[in-house]
Amino acid sequence: MNARSRPNPTTIAAVACCSCAAAAAAGDSWFATRVLDYRPAPGQFVNQSQHNNPVRALGPPTGGGTISPDNSGVVTLGGFGGSITLGFDRPILDDPRNPMGLDLIIFGNAIYVGGDPNRRFAECAIIEVSRDDNNNGLADDAWHLIPGSHLVAPVAPHAMTWDNDTSDPTFGPALASWLPPGTPNFPPLHVWQTAAPHLPTEIFGVAAILNNPNGPSATVEGVWGYADHTPTLLLGDLTGNNIVDDPLIAPEDFYTVPDDPMAVGVSPGSGGGDAVDIAWAVDAATGAPANLDRVHFVRITNPVHALLGPVGEWSAEIDAVAIVRPAFHPADFDRDGAVTVADIFAFLAAWFASDPRADIDGQPGLTVADIFAYLTLWFAS
Fold first, then answer.
1. Minimal CA–CA distance to 83: which of 202, 228, 204, 205?
2. Which residue ranges make up each domain of the chain?
3. Contact by Cβ (8 Å): 252, 324
4. Angle at the Cα of 197 (from 192 to 199), degrees rounded to 5?
5. Which of 50, 62, 228, 323 is the most exposed place for a label (fewest CB within 10 A)?
6. Is residue 147 scored above 70 in pLDDT?
7. Is the confidence at residue 7, as pLDDT, over 50?
8. 3-state secondary structure (DSSP) of residue 275
């Protein structure tokens, strides 16, 4: 547990239950492998095939960097109340071995404005988790809220009515192209509702740019615990400078390292995204801790109703969800949780292949000194 732990009405559903084609054998994937539900609300991208395919949220993220997102792998949630529910081929544990006690990471397409980490193009979404208590593989057990920095229990769902009546703009965009797939277009009149917790508009949804509430020079993050707030780095960008430092690193090694959600900027060695601790989960109605030892499902929902001019509606885009890898002993080179002779062979294979991960001594280039440095770690384990 992280020592810093803190605290539907009628919708048109496009539901997909599918397995990621690239997923490893059961229990082997560090990323979401199933879409259990996808319910986009009205939005400018919900009828565009490049943005409304929920399978894009499976597997590792694409990652574009801090100043330019890669939207080729994201799925939109549409407007207020739009959501996606994802499953995994293993439970996500509340694991004290994890860095900072963080257990899962959600990736979106947020970026820094002009490279400034205190100003972001970010459309935050709320995160909920569920444990498969009835062990049926379906997301039909109780949901628990990650309240993040700006939700305080009791958190009641806010209901919103949508319609496509062009004579009454009260309920959002009267645009046929914004209606979720499968709904009637003009005519006839169509009315439906969405419901979700609502983030405060004084921080969220008032402009296309989300500023750190702690100020323009802050080093402490004022918004945390929500999806699509922190950029997704390029694979192998170990310093957050938008340059690939390690071209050979695997997504499973890079995008499973959490960023510190309380600190401004992306932690070195992390692939970015928004990491949360399962211990933060609460009963939304009472605020009581959920006390979950593990979860099996993650639901991400757009909690803001806002139209942002040419940017369109406030709508989170989801790229991936990862399970945080536990912290490994530095001699556990193959990352299987144990230091064995197999790690020596794995290290030597990397060294002979000029893999940058074999640079153990911290000096430029791979030399025999790296072999001695690694063996010192191995024998000290």
1. 228
2. 1-327, 341-380
3. no
4. 115
5. 50
6. yes
7. no
8. strand
Residue 373 pLDDT class (50, 70, 90 cuts)? very high
Residues 6+ apart with CB under 8 A from 188: none
Are 256 and 88 contacting, i.e. CB atoms less than 8 angstroms apart? no
Let me know the angle formed at the C-alpha of 325 by 129 and 364, rounded to the nearest 5 degrees: 145
CB 117 within 8 A of CB 214: no
Return d(Cα 283, Cα 185) in angstroms, integer: 38
At 168 the pLDDT is 53
Cα gap 61→226, rounded to integer Å: 17
pLDDT band at 13 (very low <50, low <70, confident <90, very high): very low
Of 103, 96, 355, 362, the residue nearest 236 (C-alpha): 355
User: Which residues have C-beta within 8 Å of that of residue 357, sequence separation ≥ 6?
Assistant: 246, 248, 249, 333, 350
156: tokens are: 């009641």
Which are the contacts of 178, defined by CB distance < 8 A and separation ≥ 6? 42, 43, 44, 46, 47, 78, 79, 313
Q: How far is CA 219 from CA 92, 169, 222, 272, in A?
A: 30, 41, 9, 16
Contacts of 142 (CB under 8 A, 6+ apart): 130, 131, 133
pLDDT tens digits along 282-325? 999 999 999 999 999 999 999 998 877 777 788 999 999 999 99
Over range 243-257, report the average pLDDT. 94
Is pTM beyond 0.70? Reply is yes
Distance from C-alpha of 261 to C-alpha of 16, rounded to nearest angstrom: 31
Cβ atoms of 160 and 193 within 8 Å: the answer is yes
